[in-house]
Design a protein that fits this description.
Elements lengths: L4 E6 L13 H18 L4 H6 L2 E12 L10 E8 L7 E9 L4 E13 L5 E2 L1 H4 L29 E3 L16 H8 L11 E6 L9 E8 L2 E8 L4 E8 L1
Length: 241
């Protein structure tokens, strides 16, 4: 039996935008919650890793939506997650959200590294994984995610300072919260649902640290990036509407 996990959950009113589209932040929350539970089952949960001085770090994530398939608040859906073969450097974890009729609503993928909290160096994932190697071969997307190309923009469209409510119990800005900053930086419209996004996490953003948001649009899609006070890219995102 392959290593995967799924649950039936009920979508909440707050899982949708004001235009009735699934919120990307909410979707990442749903995926992250199931992945956290599954990592505990695999012996790679937060508590187990911290006992060894390790912590998970997400490098990039991608979501692809099916806005033509209707879903609504309080509807029951099936959420599924499954990891792929870990390597020395990383592990990829995929996700899917379906209605109870089996129609795909959202699919996603993510790339994770293990960080040694004392040395701040990356640790081998395969050497720290204690379980079986019976991994599912299904792929949400073909191939490995590529790094988003940088872009130039002269003036920021906004400035954000993460607050207490953006921090999770790991004392970090939760990776899903970045999408709130990103979605607020772009004009939204009821007839313009989000179809896909990829976010690359470059430099950790700390509570109280100001980040300037820049946007641009080209043939690849809509770009948003955050630049911290040191002039470094905190995150880079590419969206398609």
């Amino acid at each position: 039996m392959s290593i995967e996990k799924e649950h039936i959950i009920k979508l909440r009113l707050t899982d949708f935008t004001r235009y009735g589209h699934l919120s990307p932040t909410a979707v990442l929350d749903i995926f992250q919650d199931l992945a956290t539970e599954h990592s505990i089952d695999m012996g790679m949960g937060i508590d187990e890793l911290m006992e060894r001085g390790l912590i998970w770090v997400v490098v990039r994530q991608k979501l692809e939506f099916r806005p033509n398939i209707a879903c609504k608040p309080h509807q029951q859906v099936r959420v599924r997650t499954w990891p792929h073969d870990p390597t020395r450097l990383n592990i990829q974890r995929d996700y899917a959200l379906y209605n109870l009729e089996g129609d795909l609503l959202v699919k996603g993928t993510s790339e994770w590294l293990l960080l040694d909290m004392e040395s701040k160096k990356f640790a081998s994932v395969i050497e720290n994984y204690p379980g079986e190697l019976d991994f599912c071969e299904d792929r949400a997307f073909e191939g490995k995610l590529k790094k988003i190309k940088d872009f130039t923009a002269e003036e920021p469209v906004g400035i954000v300072t993460p607050q207490f409510s953006d921090v999770d119990f790991n004392q970090h800005i939760n990776n899903a919260r970045y999408l709130n900053f990103i979605m607020n930086a772009i004009p939204q419209a009821p007839d313009r649902p989000l179809r896909s996004l990829q976010i690359d996490y470059r430099k950790e953003l700390m509570p109280g640290e100001t980040v300037s948001l820049f946007t641009a649009a080209d043939e690849a899609g809509t770009h948003v990036k955050g630049i911290n006070g040191e002039g470094e890219i905190s995150f880079n995102c590419l969206l398609d509407y």
